[in-house]
Design goal:
It contains 11 helices and 11 strands. It has 327 residues and is α/β, with parallel strands linked by helices. It binds nicotinamide-adenine-dinucleotide and thymidine-5'-diphospho-beta-D-xylose.
Length: 327
């Protein structure tokens, strides 16, 4: 049986990926995760895997784990834009140096790597337009987070071209679903209302994100691992790149019976992300299951309502930090 090394497998998308991959049963799964504030062993409860606590920047550890696996799926990252504005340094370290460390190990041992990137490396699109990001869109990152993700993508492509490393890259849009940290937009609003507080909309709320359920993202990653062409890049999106933040908040308020307020905007706030997923649909036959965003949102709300013990601990500290920046 093949062994898959999953970095960042105790985080939001990574843990949902490990659960899905374990259900499909195609590989033995080893998780490498530093368990930062965003990583949580409880996310993997009941899922068959082996766990190693450590950093993707630890070269000897990474070398040993890569030597003993067949394929690496690289989710580990500092992932929150607002945190990258407060302190960019862990973003440079984990996202850039960590990816470099993995690339050197897969190069030495001739292993395959799938690199999880984001739509944010392409910058943003104007509100009101209908153009979308393709795999050929120019890189134009706006935040320290997206700049470090862009840097890591460039390293992967350079290692493919210069050293013949066997790698694929995917750019996905905004994920939502169970186990997402309460610092992020959708879980923050759900848990605010469940706590009796209003939802918090940055600025006007006219910004657009191309929301995708985490299971659809991870199903696409599995399709790339199974059928993707080495050296290629695939955009992943579910066709929701027209829904504004205000509409999402209004839907959450309607479903939970809450209210919202406008708070200070994010500096440099990206306006619109919309993905063109024609390539992965055509080449790999991938299709999202959650074609109606509101179905996935209702399921996610139910999950948070039933798992207060999972999110309550992190909530107080997160809200204290947001309050300090007027958000
Ligand atoms: P997350 O913050 O929930 O999880 C990140 C995980 O990485 C955590 O378990 C954390 O402990 C771990 N980690 C952090 N630094 C590490 C290090 N130095 N070594 C090992 N592990 C470390 O993030 P997420 O939302 O699940 O995002 C996962 C990946 O998907 C990231 O690469 C992110 O850029 C990308 N992505 C996220 C989204 C989204 O909407 N959340 C969209 C597109 C792409
Ligand atoms: O309280 C809030 N109110 C609000 O209006 C928060 C936390 C966010 N927002 C807005 C900012 C964004 O326009 O909601 C939108 C989504 O915000 P985030 O959840 O912080 O996501 P975003 O900055 O778009 O980045 C996400 O998608 C791409 C992930 O965090 C990244 O890891 C991924 O690469």
């Amino acid at each position: 049986m093949r062994t898959m090394l999953v970095t960042g497998g105790a985080g939001f998308i990574g843990s949902n990926f490990v659960r899905l991959a374990a259900q499909r049963g195609t590989a033995r799964i080893v998780v490498l995760d530093a368990l930062t504030y965003a990583g949580n062993r409880a996310n993997l409860e009941g899922v068959e895997h082996e766990f190693v606590q450590g950093s993707v920047t630890d070269a000897p550890l990474v070398d040993d784990l890569v030597r003993h696996c067949d394929v690496v799926v690289h989710f580990a990252a500092e992932s929150h834009n607002d945190n990258s504005l407060a302190d960019p340094s862990p973003f440079v370290n984990t996202n850039v140096v960590g990816t470099f460390t993995l690339l050197e190990a897969v190069r030495r041992h001739g292993k395959r790597l799938h690199h999880i990137s984001t739509d944010e490396v392409f910058g943003d699109l104007p509100l009101g337009g209908d153009e979308a990001f393709t795999e050929q869109s120019p890189y134009r990152p706006s935040s320290p987070y997206s700049a470090t993700k862009a840097g890591s993508d460039h390293l992967v492509r350079a290692w493919v071209r210069s050293f013949g490393v066997k790698a694929t890259v995917s750019h996905c849009s905004n994920n939502f679903g169970p186990y997402q940290h309460v610092e992020k937009f959708i879980p923050r609003q759900i848990t605010n209302i469940l706590s009796g507080a209003p939802a918090k909309l940055y600025g006007s709320g006219a910004q657009v994100r191309d929301w995708i359920h985490v299971d659809d993202h991870n199903d696409a990653v599995l399709a790339i691992l199974e059928r993707g062409r080495l050296g290629e890049t695939y955009n992943i999106g579910a066709g929701h790149g027209h829904i504004t933040n205000k509409e999402v908040v209004e839907m959450i308020c309607e479903l939970l019976g809450g209210t919202y307020e406008h708070v200070a905007d994010r500096p440099g706030h990206d306006q619109r992300y919309t993905m063109d997923a024609t390539k992965i649909r055509g080449e790999l036959g991938w299709r999202p299951q959650y074609t109606d965003m509101w179905v996935g949102l209702e399921k996610t709300i139910t999950w948070y309502a039933e798992h207060e013990d999972w999110w309550r601990g992190a909530k107080v500290g997160v809200e204290k930090r947001y309050a300090e920046s007027g958000q």
